[in-house]
Amino acid sequence: MPETILEIKGLNAHYRDFQALYGVDMTVAAGEVLAIIGANGAGKTTLMRSISGLMANGAGQIRYRGNDISGLRADQVAATGIALVPEGRQLFRSLSVEENLIIGGQIGRKGPWNVQAVFKLFPILAERRAVPATSLSGGQQQMVAIGRALMANPDLILFDEISLGLAPIIIKDIYAALPGIIGEGMSALIVEQDITKALSVSNRLYCLQEGRVSLEGVSGAVSRAEISRAYFGME
Amino acid sequence: MEWANAVVQGTLLGGLYALFAAGLSLIFGVMRLVNIAHGDLIVLAAYLGLTVVSVLGLHPLLALLVVVPVMALFGYVLQRVVLNRTLGDDLLPPLLVTFGLSVILQNGLLAIYTADPQKINAGPLETASVSVAGLSLGVLPLLTFCVAIAVIWGLQWVFYHTALGRAFRAVSDNQDIAQLMGLNRRHIFGLAMALALAVTALAGILLGIRTSFDPSIGGGRLIFGFEAVIIGGLGNLWGTLAGGVILGVAQTLGAKVDPGWQLLAGHITFLIILALRPNGLFPRISA
User: Fold this and answer.
1) DSSP H or E segment with residue A206
2) Which of A40, A69, A226, B51 is the most exposed, having the fewest neighbouring CB atoms within 10 Å of its CB?
3) Is A153 helix (H, G, I), strand (E, B) or coil?
4) Is residue A149 part of a domain?
5) Which residues of B touch A84 (CB under 8 A)?
């Protein structure tokens, strides 16, 4: 049994009076890829925001390598080795492609990823390194967003809806590249609407429904019927 | 020839206005903070310069070696301790807090230095002039203009060629995502305010050598700075220099017509440009 690197226990999250997560429990082992599925508004992005420190949570709810990170700021969480590829890519529009990558790497964690390695993974970015990042196509922007997160040499990488708004052919390319990206002992959480895609790249899956975990299982072992029940909440 | 002279003098005066404006522009660009106390901070720098000159007996330009770092440090602390707490989705709290800071600074200076007009004595520098193409140019205005160009160029260089500038732009684009990249925005904002007040220190001392000042003149300097920023277009530092020059030329030409028209001509020019080009003459391309 590999070491557990992320342990979430009884995670609650609120936007003012609205509670988005209710007592979510989740564990991620080193090297494991988890798929998080669920309908819009199920709390997937809130979970990502909580883990990455963009939302503060109650003490002891999120532990990373044994340390409580629930109350840390996002920059402090980033320094511990967790990187987020945010929903909607959210590149820095005043920065060039290369600058977006460089800024991803500036927390200075050691590891295999640097600008050259990202350019090798996505050669098109090397050609377009000097242009403003937001002038790229959607798929290329997603490559920059993934590269930017990799530049931090994270041990745990969070992908939030990386196929949202992209052409199917581009999604296929990006998912084809994922195993090569995640390899080398990196753990990943993949939030995805497309269940087939999510199952194909993950070891285990969690389904969220209205802020609660409605299903948890090994990706190859859960049936479609179980998933639809957990996804839609219908019997 | 007299009109040409007025244009040239106005251009040089514009350098000083650009120095007033550069700090405002920087702060607004990085953290969307409108600093109402900016003019009073310029006056504070002038008084600090005055004190350093009189206590240490330094030449005013050497006093910069003291006043610039002191103002920068003050800026960092002010940002971390006070202003960061006011920043959020609402634009009103920073406006109110910097307005309050403006009142505190004015009254603090009044209590310490009295309302008597003061001037920083720079000796022969104040009256030295050079003759260029039949025009007599003051060395001090010329120096001020060169300093303004150097400051704008330097800020531009920092913004586009250093890790700090990259961090400024990233935080300005998207604070949350910048935080995910390991940038602590509170620290970055502190550094931006430090840089802005370092420029303010330069502006304050050059102002104090050029004209007499008292604790109440901050508001006027703030207006000139604002007008230069708006004329030039938000977020464009070279535009800010152009804005300062346009304002300076409008004022000296107005004064040429009638000395009472100096300030009014500047404000009217500003209003005309604001009416015709609400985003200023050279707004940064991105929305």
Assistant:
1) strand A204-209
2) A40
3) coil
4) no
5) 180
